[in-house]
Amino acid sequence: MVSRTGMLKALPEPVRQYMVVTMAYWSFTITDGALRMLVLLYFHQLGYTPVELALLFVLYELCGVVCNLVGGWLGARFGLHRTLFAGMLLQIVALLMLTVPDVWLSVVYVMLAQGLSGIAKDLNKMSAKSSVKLLVPAGQSGQLFRWVAALTGSKNALKGVGFFVGSLLLATLGFRGGMLAMALWIAFFLVLSLYWLRTGIGQSRVKAPFLEVLSKSRGVNVLSAARFFLFGARDIWFVVAVPVFLYGVLGWSHIQTGTFMALWVIGYGAAQAFAPALVRLGPDDALRKGRSAVALWGLLLAGSPLLIALALHQAWPVGPSLVIGLAIFGILFAVNSAVHSWLILEYARDEGAALDVGFYYMANAAGRLVGTLLSGLSFQLYGMTGTLLVAAGFVGVAALLALALPASRD
């Protein structure tokens, strides 16, 4: 009987490396989602306001901006395997920082731990997605789209699992026990990745100067601007407004709130994985078709928060209106995100792809930073309806920017 190790070694090299990268990405993602839910629910339980809760995640997102800008350069210079391992190690440190007694858990201390986790997350994400670009043969747009959609979709589904795991850990092991359990989980998969992942992935033959982190490609720049508004729109309602609304206004329990957030992200991830079946990108004129698809699906997405806001304004049943509306938003957002993730790899340079991908995800993190701040602020000032209107405006800008994307790689 062939052992599992033997079966893995028998696979083609690109497939085997794709599986190892995906395994590392999956293991990290579960802790990323669980950490967010643990921090959000635990500190809301302690009486933090929506703005204070948003501040706990500000350094997480801000560090993501800097990390993506620098991380692509580090990946190109030292290899994506090293940045992947560094991300997992930093996540372990961040989780262990939060196992201290309550008296140490000031806003500043938690922000610092979250900031470290933000660096870890974006090192991990940039490394995984850049690796896929290098593992797919040139000219295989369809295969690249499928692999990226599968990686990103499965990641988001598992992040949803992480939300549920976080609420479950809080209810069973408590805040500190949950952090310790997740640190041990990441450590196990870090050891496996060190053994299986080959070295040198994504390491540029020519050492790029640091200023190369600023993209000179029109396609990358325009798509990055669209990504800023797309993910800003999601986090405007996602980070603070909806979970606090469900728990604090509708009276849902921690488990119910965590389960809804988990199911939303799992459904979003599943829809993202199936995006290639909804958006057909053949070998001919793929970039032009992708540009049209992301603009069309973006305009459709902009309508969903408007419909939810209208339902709340008309005093329709709040719970069903919010749940159904956000489910529609999740499906449309998933298709947009999947096409975006494919487009950046198409626009990215073959030599130094990590630089372009890092710049793009820097814009993604900047959008999430702004969205996080607006989530607490808009909800505290204008309630759920106002928050959804702001989110709709952000999506509309993202869709209009997509119309300016070039039809060919610069």
Gyration radius, rounded: 20 Å
User: In CATH's first tier, which class applies?
Assistant: Mainly Alpha
The CATH homologous superfamily is called MFS general substrate transporter like domains
Which percent range fits the helix content?
A: over 70%
CATH architecture: Up-down Bundle
Shape: globular
CATH fold title: Growth Hormone, Chain: A
Low-confidence stretches: none
Secondary-structure element series: HHHHHHHHHHHHHH
Summarize the biggest pleated sheet. none
Count of DSSP E strands?
0
Structural class: mainly alpha
Strand content: under 5%
- The helix tally amounts to 14
Tally of distinct domains: 1
Spatial gap, N to C terminus: 51 Å
Write down the overall mean pLDDT. 79
Provide a descriptive summary of the structure in words.
By secondary structure, the protein is mainly α. The chain has a single domain, classed as Up-down Bundle (Growth Hormone, Chain: A). 81% of the residues lie in helices and 0% in strands. It has helices spanning 4-10, 13-45, 50-78, 80-97, 107-135, 141-172, 174-196, 218-238, 241-249, 254-273, 275-278, 286-313, 318-347, 353-402. Helix 6 packs antiparallel against helix 10.
Quick structural summary:
The chain is 81% helix and 0% strand. It is mainly alpha-helical and 410 residues long.
